[in-house]
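Researcher: Sequence recovery benchmark, item below. Answer with residues only.
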């Protein structure tokens, strides 16, 4: 019962906030409405037992929408993307086309001859999904992920030539940080 309630609440919020993306006149508000919609979709995937995909969607969309909002604040001509604007042209025509496509897809869902399940579900659907997506390349992708992460860490370490031990001494108890003075001369 609780699972069904959570499913329908997440579904309703996902659809409602997805609709609000197109109703808001502010790009910043539309960004956060889209984030809410995608967070609900991630929650639905977690609820359906696809924990890995759900968490990936939540993490990826949170970071993506936060970066998008920051760039809107920095670069949009109107302050923070909060001033009213519309990026749609021919609103009535677009609405008719969207409604037609939606109805056609819904009709396809209802009338399509869905195949029957062959066999039983795997014990670990996340592992089964990973194997079906990556196939024999799973080890390659895991190694590539580790290599990319190591590259990011190494790049950050190489970009900062001084660490906290250089600034405040080995015991971190120096009264003042030994930071370079503007102009390149140290203290």
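Model:
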């Amino acid at each position: 019962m609780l699972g069904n309630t959570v499913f329908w609440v997440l579904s309703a919020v996902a659809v409602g906030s997805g609709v609000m993306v197109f109703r808001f006149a502010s790009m910043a508000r539309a960004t956060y409405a889209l984030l809410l919609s995608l967070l609900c979709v991630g929650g639905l995937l977690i609820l359906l037992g696809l924990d890995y995909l759900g968490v990936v969607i939540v993490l990826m969309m949170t970071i993506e929408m936060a970066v998008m909002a920051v760039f809107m604040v920095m670069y949009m001509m109107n302050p923070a993307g909060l001033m009213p604007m519309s990026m749609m042209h021919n609103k009535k025509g677009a609405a008719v086309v969207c409604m037609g496509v939606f109805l056609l897809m819904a009709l396809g869902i209802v009338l399509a001859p869905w195949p029957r399940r062959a066999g039983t579900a795997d014990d670990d659907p996340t592992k089964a999904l990973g194997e079906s997506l990556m196939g024999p390349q799973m080890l390659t992708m895991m190694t590539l992920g580790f290599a990319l992460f190591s590259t990011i860490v190494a790049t950050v370490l190489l970009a900062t030539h001084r660490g906290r031990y250089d600034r405040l001494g080995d015991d971190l108890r120096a009264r003042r940080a030994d930071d370079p003075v503007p102009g390149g001369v140290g203290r």
